[in-house]
Amino acid sequence: MSTLSPLVRGFVSHFGEMGSRWGINRTVGQIYALIYLSPRPVNADEIAEALEFSRSNVSMGLKELQAWRLVRMQHQPGDRREYFDAPTDPWEIFRTLAEERRRREVEPTLTMLRNALLEPAGTDDDRIAQERMQGMHDLIELLLTWHNEVNRMDPATLASLMKMGAKVGKLLDYASKLKVVGREG
C-alpha cells in the first residue's frame, strides 16, 4: 500500500478521532477507515506501514473489527498472508453495527431489567424503582420491536422512510383524526 493521499489520510484521521466517541479506540477506528476506503483487500503489514502502527497493534485492531463483524478475512491465491476487506454498503454496515450494539449493550440491560422486575418490592422505594424500571423495560422492548421491523425493510424503503422525517408524525396524526371521525360517523 502506498502513501496515503491527503483525502484518505483526512478520513482515516477523523475516523480515529470519532472512534473513541463511538466506543472503540483511535487505532481501531483508523484501521477500519483504511480498510473501508481501500479499493482492494489489504494485509496487516500494509496496514501497519500505511498508518505507521506496530504490527501487534494492527493485529489486535483487526481481531476487534472481526469480532464486530466489520471486516472480513480472506486469503489470496499463492499468498499465505491474511487479507482484510470491509463491506462497502453503508446500510449493511449500519445494520451490522446496530445488531452488535444490540447484542452487546441492549440485551444485557434488558436481561437485568427483567430480573429486577421479578424481585419482590420490599419497600415503597423499591416499588417506585421497579415502576421506573418497568417504564425503561417497556421502552426498550418497543424499540427492539421497531428495530426488528425496520431491519427487515430493504434499503430503498428505509431511505424513503428516513426522508419523510417529521412527515411521518403528521401522517400518524392525520390517521388518528380519521379514526375518530370514523367512530363518530
TrEMBL record:
InterPro entries: ArsR-like_HTH, HTH-GbsR_regulator, HTH_MarR-typ, MJ1563, WH-like_DNA-bd_sf, WH_DNA-bd_sf. SUPFAM superfamilies: Winged helix' DNA-binding domain (SSF46785). GO terms for molecular function: DNA binding; DNA-binding transcription factor activity. Keywords: DNA-binding, Transcription, Transcription regulation. The keyword Amino-acid biosynthesis does not apply. Residues 23-82 form the HTH marR-type domain. The keyword Transcription applies. Belongs to the GbsR family. This is HTH-type transcriptional regulator. It comes from Aquabacterium lacunae. The lineage of its organism: Bacteria, Pseudomonadati, Pseudomonadota, Betaproteobacteria, Burkholderiales.
